[in-house]
Amino acid sequence: MNLSHVIKPFQDLTVNELYELLRLRSEVFVVEQNCAFLDQDNKDQHCHHVLLYSEGKLGAYCRLVPAGLSYQEISIGRVVTSPDSRGTGLGRKVMEIAIQSCTGIFGVGNIRIGAQTYALPFYEGLGFVAEGERYDEDGIEHVEMIRKA
User: Fold this and answer.
1) How far is it, in rounded angstroms, from Cα 148 to Cα 133?
2) Which of 15, 40, 91, 136 could bridge across to 81 with cysteines, CB 3.0–4.6 Å?
3) What is the pLDDT along the chain (149 residues), one digit of tens a residue?
4) What angle do CA 19, 23, 29 make, to 5 degrees?
5) Spatial CA neighbour of 65 closest among 42, 82, 86, 83
6) 119: burial class by Cβ within 10 Å (0-12, 13-18, 19+)?
7) Which fold has domain 3-147?
8) How far apart are CA 21 and CA 10, in angstroms?
9) Residue ranges of the domains in the chain?
10) Among candidate residues 146, 110, 115, the one with its CA nearest the CA of residue 129
11) In this structure, what DSSP letter does residue 29 have?
12) Is residue 138 within 8 Å of 33, Cβ to Cβ?
């Protein structure tokens, strides 16, 4: 599998990269999960974006959120794997890149995420621990998780 990745702040994304990441997020979060919500939440402009390509096609994506924007801690959000790439390990790979990049970009710190509860085992395998009560976000059950520095 020929993998490559790009990590860029919002203002450095090309028009095509921005289109690809927004299309993938809409394909999964809006269409596949049947969830009508406003994905463009005015946070993207303050984030770094991780695009993971397999064979030249966007296979997985997430955004790196600075502390104080979504949570008090650094965060990783909008984690998504293309339906065509599921089961290939790209989701784990994009998260490994994201965790390492958070330290490089923001410095050493805890990382907090809002995880869909079906994905708890996935995130636990990356060192995250559930914290707090489960909650509904746009009709999908979530729980906050923390990965200690």
Assistant:
1) 19
2) 91
3) 799 999 999 999 999 999 999 999 999 988 888 777 777 899 999 999 999 999 999 999 999 999 999 999 999 999 999 999 999 999 999 999 999 999 999 999 999 999 999 999 999 999 999 999 999 988 889 999 999 99
4) 145
5) 42
6) middle
7) Aminopeptidase (3.40.630)
8) 11
9) 3-147
10) 146
11) I
12) no
What tokens were used for 7?
């990590």
pTM: 0.95
121, 129 Cβ separation under 8 angstroms? no
Residue with structure tokens 């596949």?
32
Beta strand 111-116 pairing with 74-81: parallel
| DSSP structural state of residue 31 | I
- Burial of 18 by CB count in 10 Å (0-12 exposed, 13-18 middle, 19+ buried)? middle
